[in-house]
Amino acid sequence: MTGDEVFHRELRQRMSGKILFDEPAERHASIGVGGPIDALLFPEDEREIAEIVRFLRERRVPFLPVGNWTNLIVRDRGFRGVLISLACLRNLILRDNGKDGMLLLAGAGCPLSELVSLTVREALSEMAFCAGIPGSVGGAVRMNAGAYGGEIKDIVETVRLLDDLGVIRRVARKELHFAYRSLDLPAETIIIGATFRLRKGNGMMIEEQVRKIIETRRRKHPLAFRNAGSIFKNPPDCPAGRLIDECGLRGLRIGDAQISEKHGNFIVNRGRATAEQILGLIELIQRRVFERTGHVLETEVKIIGE
Predict the structure, then answer these.
(1) DSSP string, 7-47
(2) At 151, which CATH number?
(3) Domain containing 45: what range?
(4) Does the pLDDT value for residue 191 go beyond 90?
(5) pTM over 0.85
(6) What is the distance between the alpha carbons of residues 282 and 299, in angstroms, rounded to a whole number?
(7) Fewer Cβ within 10 Å of end Cβ, the chain: N or C?
């Protein structure tokens, strides 16, 4: 259906934003791999997103929302369906929340880096742990992103969701079920935005904390090559990178896909890697780590497509 000209025309009638058909995922994904997407949509606002979602559900066309493409691997044969970019949802609003408190309202498509920069400028604490995380708000909330002792669940006040009926509603933190690197939501629910609860703090200390975290990431992470961030979730008792190192896998290559020489839990694209090569390394790591340590490594990256 997604390759049908009638379907294409119906999509255009419902959107003022850009539409790309048969668009290679490798042009967008941070790791630089992936085959053609039937349709990649760039709605211009929440209303357009809701309209498109209702239309796709009526037609029973598979779809997924995408943010900054930093935690996503699309297989080489591409994605049969529609990917909906949330890039238009970049609003950032600060509101006073009483003595020493502030609320930060952010759209799902807003990069975390913009939130961190704003909190540094406004001397707001609690969000420094997000420094250097390349994703957007929607993905960070969905994955309960975390680092350096902090997690998104610790600072979320409310989340705005587009439900399966096409209705946008605000859900309070106490009604949300977060776990390690996950938020339990119905599969077809789309995160539209979130509100974060922050506190006023010492501007110099916050700026220094953010600077140190970014320096640590630059020192430890393979930022010179395209990658999708941490490949595996950390088991409860040991970092995934350490388990991979214990198996002697750091630096191993399949074609241009390589387990990073800097950090075992990263796979990098050294130039012309394919999704098949990257997924081959993922499977090899899982097998070797289980054989040697008994740990079952679960992927943190989202893998889609054929």
Answers:
(1) HHHHHHHH-SSEEEEEEEGGGTSTT----EEEEEEE-SSHH
(2) 3.30.465.10
(3) 5-85
(4) yes
(5) yes
(6) 8
(7) C
Same domain? For 96 and 174 the reply is yes
Beta bridge partners of 134: none
Confidence tier at 70 by pLDDT (50, 70, 90): very high
Helix (H, G, I), strand (E, B) or coil at 69: coil
**Residues 175, 157: contact at Cβ < 8 Å?**
no
Catalytic residues: 181, 230, 300
CA distances from residue 211 to 118, 127, 207 in whole angstroms, order as listed: 14, 13, 6
Residues 99 and 173 in one domain: yes
State how far the Cα of 191 lies from the Cα of 66, in Å rounded to an integer. 10
CATH number of the domain where residue 69 is located:
3.30.43.10
The pLDDT value recorded for residue 206 is: 96
Rounded to the nearest 5 degrees, what angle is found at the Cα of 83, between the Cα atoms of 82 and 87? 145
pLDDT at 28: 97
* Length of the chain counted residue by residue: 306
Average pLDDT value for the chain: 95
Backbone angles phi and psi of 4, in degrees to 5: -80, 135
> Is the domain of 118 the same as that of 151?
yes
State the helix-helix crossing angle for 203-220 and 112-121, rounded to 10 degrees: 150
**Cβ pair 213, 205 in contact under 8 A:** no
| Residue 77, pLDDT score | 98
Q: Stretch 101-116: mean pLDDT, rounded?
A: 96
Residue 249: CB atoms within 10 A of its CB come to 17
Helix (H) or strand (E) holding 293: helix 275-293
Please give the Cα distance from 66 to 58 (Å, whole number): 20
CA 250 to chain centre: 24
Signed CA dihedral, 232, 222, 250, 150: sign only:
negative
Residue corresponding to tokens 């989340």: 159
